[in-house]
Amino acid sequence: MVQKLAESNIYELLEKGRESIESGYLPLEIFTSKEIFELEVRKLWPRIWHFLAHESEIPNPGDYVLRYIGPYDQVLVIRGEDGKIRGFLNICRHRGRAFCKTERGNAAFFRCPYHFWTYSNKGELVGVPQDDTFKIDRREYGLIPVRIESYKGFIFGNLDGKAESLEDYLGEFKWYFDIAIRGGELEVYGNLIRWIVNMGWKPIVDNFGSDSYHIPFTHRSTYQIGANPLKLEDVGVSPPSGIKKVSGGFSGYQFASTKGHGGGITSFYDISAENLAKVDEIPVPPKIYEIYPPNFLEVLSKKLSPDQLRAVKLEMLTLAVTRIRVFPNLAIIVHSLNAADPQQRYTQDYLVRVWRPIDVDKTEVLTWCMVPRFASDIYKRESYRQCIFMNGPAGILDMDDVMNWMSQTENAKSSSATKFILPLKQREIEKPVEDFPLPHKEVKVYREPADWSSRALWRRYFEIMLS
Amino acid sequence: METVIKQKISCEIYLEIVNFLNKEAELLDNFKYKDWLNLVTDDIEYIFYSRQNIEAESPQKQLGSPIIMDNKILLEKRINRLYSEYAWAEIPRSMSRHFITNIRVYPTEKENEVKVVSNVLFYRHRHDNLYHELISYERHDILRKVNGEWKIAKREIIPDTNIILVDHLANIY
């Protein structure tokens, strides 16, 4: 809509959103309100922990990557010559020019092209031309630090510096995060793939890592060509006792954290809640191990708790897609897939995904493909090959997904959008599952498919925007 | 020049290559993807690289990891998908045009193979979009003569951008 909302009306719309979520609805116009987008720049992006980089991208002193938080803030993530990882705003203290213009590299120093003010890779101002003409203390003009914290190799930044610790921000959900990242045993393969698409970021995060309902429909073509995700019969296994195939869609378990995180262990197969406790007793059919690196469980047993290993076993027994979303715009998705090499028949891809807002209808899609660092070279290569075949600009999943999100974005701009409230009603009347093997006080666990993960996201979103 | 040219590219060969690339583009721009599959060898490597905004003395040094790394198995899947009723990215089909210029043909170690470098401007329009999409890239091909016909044994695509700025890469490039 061209019409500008007055400041008070923005808060009215946000209040309407907050109330709607409580009764299980989301107003469509939230997706593309320009005023709300601008308010997010002040109230959302500076206050969250935003995924920036993985430690394996910058292994050596001086290695850096340049990343963004929200539409405008460039953050340099750099390993100093002392080995410590720091974050800095890409803004020269003298006149505000960006001193770094490359997206990655290795540098001992950064020299701003404007007046040659020079900074060390630890952020200290070390060079000022004609410095006798200035009466300043250089120690007061170092680069502005961005607060950085790492969780098992995943580096996050918090712009306003006031967020709770990263571990507290993840809360109980870190147990779930651990499963997707295999206890921290992942590394980035290749480099970040960047892609900008004409769509808003909010329709996407409503879907990604939450909505398993769309998979058999939006992604139906991938089933027809035998590309998406493996079924037990594809690897020559019949469902172990206690596990049954679901018809017409997905099942499994969905997560919804009060801190806004979500995800699921989502599958064509169902282990009933009563049988969850018996996961230990069901042996993993040997053929399923072919999907994983040979020493997979051995390595993970040193990194994960017995309960977490039970959740991994749930993934293995049902060939589940393991999906997590960290509030608001990071997701990690692990699929079990056919590989395309005679020496490696199956593999898993590890998609790490950030959706970065640029405008109400422009979003940068960041794709990292990760691999278990303990896997063989051929496993890593095939994992990467599948990762880009499924995800990113040429990924057969993403390219159909963006059609949905672009269309929702355009419709949310229409004058009719104000009439639409979208139902987040799937499994609304079901109670959370009580026997899930991971901690579930802050994180509620529901049967898939459901709208609870999406609700958790929006509830947290409105809470932050209105605080 | 110290390099020894092992075999000279004749006008005849050059013309064959130009005709091949033009015919290939015609198939792609007319949605004849299955026919296009007949133009590739069984051991094809089809690679679309990412490119990085980094300090480098040559475009080759700016190359990142692939965005597409298909062999024949994956190319067949990718193309079969386009014939599915559910490949939403290409329903309805986008309108596209491959403009191929600056064609350079070089001999290789192998008698039946040539290296072909060309510049491509790919134009596309989709749906009711108020914009069109352009990708400029360089192709590095290995073409192999099999039973008297040229086939693509390797295609490396080097885009002139570090950020993919089109809505998807569902076509063949």
What labels would you give this structure?
heterodimer; A: 467 residues; alpha+beta; Rieske Iron-sulfur Protein; Naphthalene 1,2-dioxygenase Alpha Subunit, Chain A, domain 1; eight-stranded antiparallel β-sheet; 12 helices; 25% helix; 29% strand; B: 173 residues; Nuclear Transport Factor 2, Chain: A; six-stranded mixed β-sheet; 3 helices; 6 strands
What order do the helices and strands come in, and which of them pair?
The complex is a heterodimer of chains A (467) and B (173).
Chain A: H1 7-22, E1 25-27, H2 34-43, E2 50-54, E3 63-69, E4 73-79, E5 85-89, E6 104-106, E7 109-111, E8 118-120, E9 125-127, E10 145-151, E11 154-158, H3 166-170, H4 174-180, E12 186-197, H5 202-207, H6 215-218, H7 220-224, E13 243-245, E14 251-257, E15 262-267, E16 269-271, H8 296-301, H9 306-318, E17 321-326, E18 330-341, E19 344-359, E20 362-372, H10 377-390, H11 398-413, E21 421-423, E22 443-447, H12 452-465
Chain B: H1 11-29, H2 33-37, E1 40-51, E2 63-70, H3 72-82, E3 95-107, E4 113-125, E5 133-146, E6 149-159
- What is the count of DSSP helices of chain B, taking H or I runs of 4+ residues? 3
Assign the CATH class of chain B: Alpha Beta
Please identify, by name, the CATH architecture of the largest domain in chain A.
Alpha-Beta Complex
Give the strand content of chain A.
Answer: 25-35%
**Poorly predicted tracts of residues of chain A:** none
Whole-number count of domains of chain B: 1
Oligomeric form: heterodimer
Question: Per the principal axes of the C-alpha atoms, what is the gross shape of chain A?
Answer: globular
Query: What is the CATH architecture term of chain B?
Result: Roll
Q: Within the CATH hierarchy, at the fold level, what is the topology of chain B?
A: Nuclear Transport Factor 2, Chain: A
Instruction: Evaluate the radius of gyration of chain B.
Output: 17 Å
Q: Let me know the number of strands of chain A.
A: 22
Helicity range of the residues of chain B? Answer: 10-25%
Q: What best-fitting shape of chain B do the alpha-carbon axes yield?
A: globular
Structural class, judged by helices and strands of chain A? alpha+beta
The string of secondary-structure elements of chain B, in order, is HHEEHEEEE
